[in-house]
């Protein structure tokens, strides 16, 4: 009789764990971008990045997690708890430039904020253009 109760307890614990885990994943996907950023105009859509600013900044600050080709398979990615998103996916590309800008500059949890490290507007937008190019 006692073992049976224990089994139920273990089952309940497991169920709770999976509910929390899936809830967390759902929350993680819902990264709300303020309207102000979402509708931000990218002033550099037609500008050629001749000095490869985007590429250089990416190699310096982003590649370790996001990977060389933007798949989210950088060497550090495997040490993280959150899923490093795939920049080649349709879901990623379907968002506005302003949303990408917001996520890079503000960050959240394991995605660092680059507000202090990347200060020039031109640099920021060249980086947005670069991650969109994967
Ligand atoms: C320490 C690892 C790490 C570094 C370094 C890093 N990122 Fe991230 N990045 C993440 C993680 C983890 C997420 C997913 C965050 C989440 O969903 O909560 C993410 C998410 C993003 C997103 C949002 C993806 C989406 O699906 O909308 C963008 C854009 C992004 N990163 C760009 C960059 C850029 C550009 C750099 C370099 C300037 C950079 N990241 C550096 C870990 C990193």
Describe the protein's topology.
Blueprint: H1 2-29, H2 35-38, H3 53-61, H4 63-66, H5 90-93, H6 97-106, H7 121-132
Helix pairs in contact: 3-7, 6-7
The chain binds heme C.
Number of structurally distinct domains: 2
Summarize model confidence as the mean pLDDT. 91
What CATH calls the topology of the largest domain is Cytochrome Bc1 Complex, Chain D, domain 2
How many β-strand stretches?
0
What about the largest sheet?
A: none
**Range of strand content:** under 5%
* Rg from alpha-carbon coordinates: 20 Å
Overall geometric form: elongated
Written account of the structure:
- There is one protein chain.
- The protein has 134 residues and is mostly helical.
- The chain has helices spanning 2-29, 35-38, 53-61, 63-66, 90-93, 97-106, 121-132.
- It folds into 2 domains: 1-30; 31-132, Cytochrome c-like domain (Cytochrome Bc1 Complex, Chain D, domain 2).
- The longest helix is centred in the first third of the chain and has 28 residues, at 2-29.
- The N and C termini lie far apart (59 Å).
- Bound molecules: heme C.
- Residues 28, 31, 61-62, 64-66, 76, 80, 82, 84-85, 92, 100, 103-104, 108-112, 114, 127, 131 line the site of heme C.
Descriptive terms for the model:
elongated; Cytochrome Bc1 Complex, Chain D, domain 2; 134 residues; binds heme C; 2 domains; 0% strand
Give the gist of this structure:
Helices cover 53% and strands 0% of the residues. The chain is an all-alpha fold. The mean pLDDT is 91.
